[in-house]
Amino acid sequence: MTSLSPRDRPIRNLRGAFIRRTDLSNADLRDAELSGADASNARFTRSNFEGARLVGTILRGADLTGAKNLTVEQLASAVIDARMVLPDYIDRSRLRDAVESPADIAS
Length: 107
Hints:
Blueprint: E1 2-3, E2 22-23, H1 72-76, E3 80-81, E4 99-100, H2 102-106
Parallel strand pairs: 1-2, 3-4
C-alpha cells in the first residue's frame, strides 16, 4: 500500500486522482477536493473530512475507521459499496440507497 505523509501539510486537491490502495491515515482533508478521485481500497483511518468534497469519489472497499467529521451527505455523493468500513458514528442503514450492490458493480 502506498502512503502519503499527512504530517507534511494539509491535502487540498486530489480531484480525479488515482489513489487506490493508498494509506491516507491521519490525513488533514479539511476542505479538500476529492471529487472524481478513485480511492478504492484506500485507508483513511482517523483522517479529518470536515468540508471535504466527495462528489463521485470512488470509495469502494475504503477503510474509514475513526474518520472525523465525515457526514452521511458526503458519503451519499460518493460511489460506495458494502465493503467500505465506516466510522462508528455513521449508521450504514442511512446509506442504503447510495450503496452499490454486487450486481451494480458487475454491470
